[in-house]
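Box S2. Input/output pair 1.
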Amino acid sequence: MAQSIKTITDKDRFEGIFKNYFAKKDVFIKTKSGNLAVQFLGYSGENVAFRIPHVKNIREAITVYTRHQSLTISAVLNYIERNEDTFIFLPSKIQVISQERKEDRIISGAEETTNVIYISNIMSDLGIKNDLMLNDKKVEHVREIMQFDLQKQFDSVKVFFVNDSQTDIRMKILINRNSPIYIADLNTEPPDKLKAEYQFYITDIYSKDKRLSATKEFIAEATVPLYHRGIIPFGYLQVNGKTPITDGLFSVVKRAGVVINELFRKSNLFIPEPDRFLVTDLSASGLGVAFKDRRQTRFFRKDSLVIFEILLPTQKKAAIGAIVRNVNFLSNGIIKVGMEIHRMDPISEVNYEEFIEEMSKKSS
């Protein structure tokens, strides 16, 4: 997706930009809980005024933004004063970001059409972490079983869950990649196709793991991620060896990871929420939902991972893992959430892509 950014600091141009792009438009400010709808009131001298409802305190510097076709226009504002819900700011700079959408979105959510779509059975990464904490006895039982079995074959065994630590190196890496970590033997020169992976492991994992780098006794590692429904990672299984880990032993670790996932599934540890959310638009790479109950924003923290089911008009289902990209609080009380699709299982991917293709043909 091609993108260009233009920064404007010439104050003589500010008034024209605000009046052309912010007046009578959907404008938002970024907050910790999401993007709050505000109203542009006017520009006078070097100051700009916005109506910001339901806000008691505001930071010294805020960012407001609006969209116009393929442009996103944002302005950095320094707080001066307020009168009830009217706030006065001094703009310091404006950025115009041009970004072409690489695909068309299909509009949903109209009750009188046949394309009303909902998502349900939602679970967030925070919900999974809470379930692990609330069921610590079950979790520890699974951990002990796997460690006992695997310690018969490996020098070091670690079963990690996301509630164990906030700053784990491997967990951060595994969230963003779809493959295990496998280093057969650090003492043997890897083939050319694996050199980049070996170098990444040494630089970004091994050197930052004090236990491994300090002792230097372990020369091999196999780490497999643990996924809820194959989509949201909730931990990993890590083994290290003082001797090489063969492909056969790596297969043992992968099978053990499958066993852990199955134990969690049978114990019903992760219970999805029954809430339904109306889908407003969707595309091959993302979708949006809308709702009014502010309590439901607990499922949608910016940049968090969520998993949900979507029942398509074709009567086929898709289980989708998505990243929450934006949460917008509109002036009419509606809350809109935009999500980027992160991962789907193969059957869900086929069902979803078939629906998108069919709807695209109908709208073209």
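Box S3. Input/output pair 2.
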Amino acid sequence: MPLVEDNIDTHDERLTGTFWDRFSLQKSGGIIDDNRNTWVIFHEDEFNMLIYHYESIISSPIGRILHNSAADSLELINADLATIRRKFFGKKRLNKILVNDWGLCGWGVGEFHDSTVKTNVFASVAAGFYLSTIELLENCRYKLEWSQQSSLIINFKRLPANNEMPSPNLLKSIPWAYQNDLPSSIIDSDVKLESKELGWSIEGRTSFLLPCDFFNRVIFNSSGFVEQFPQNILERWDLVGFDKLYSNGLIAMLEASKEVFLSNDNFVYLRGEGDWSNIIDKHMKYFGYAAPVFTSQDQSSTNFEMNLSPSMPLSLGKLVGLWERANGKTAKCRIVLSSQSARLEISPLLTFVLEDSN
């Protein structure tokens, strides 16, 4: 007789309830908060792998880009909290809110005044979140130096900076970065969180919540660092209607997202075109990836379409990974951008022509 039954549910009902009271899952697959910010859930190992693949693809370290993108995205998300600090006992109340937010997002625990954070999040990203948090709490700009005391503990040193530094700009040049007409249809989520000493997990895997704006800022801020992609990457992606200002970063994020999925051992069994809806729901919908819709298929290509969404680069990259895993072939992708949507055409990169030897 087994000591542990396989069907034991280890999730934290209170934590899960609090999380889904604060965030909502849309029918389209996106996760939003009350202020219409969009989020995605990442497993820790897959997020670290995404960074590894992204740096490898653009052939450049992006630690500073990760830091700045994280700080700017969180500053915009928390902008409305600044008014709390000006109220009676406002700073104490604001600190409590920020500590709770870090815990709810799975980022860890912070002794913000003592300049120490214990976190599972990649150090450069956690440092960016910390900088935005402490600047909001102290109403002051800082330059930040940090060192890792261990794999989980980061120590920070704050240095005075120019208090006239402007707030971050919106990513107005990226057409999918913001969505003013987010659908109101909300569905229940099957994702359940498990409490840990540090953060939370999903089915035993350490996980956390990240803003989609962070990923789009990484795309925008790193595009200029790409001098030339390797030919084997260029031949896989054909972008139509996209601005060169961010195209290189977009290709890198698409490719990295695809590689993260292919690095795991998830099996994708596709019996026919009617299976695509269930496959997309299973692998994408409940973690904040806006779900593309299957539209058609013929002998040469498979076609999808999705409304513009802040999670689009992650969603389309993962979808291509699903297609490659299901078909056992390397994909060539053509993405056509319009004012409201993006169309994805996937075909095999290599085609073999059988000639009659006679």
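Caption for Box S3: The CA atoms of residues 20 and 276 lie 27 Å apart. The chain is about 35% helix and 20% strand.
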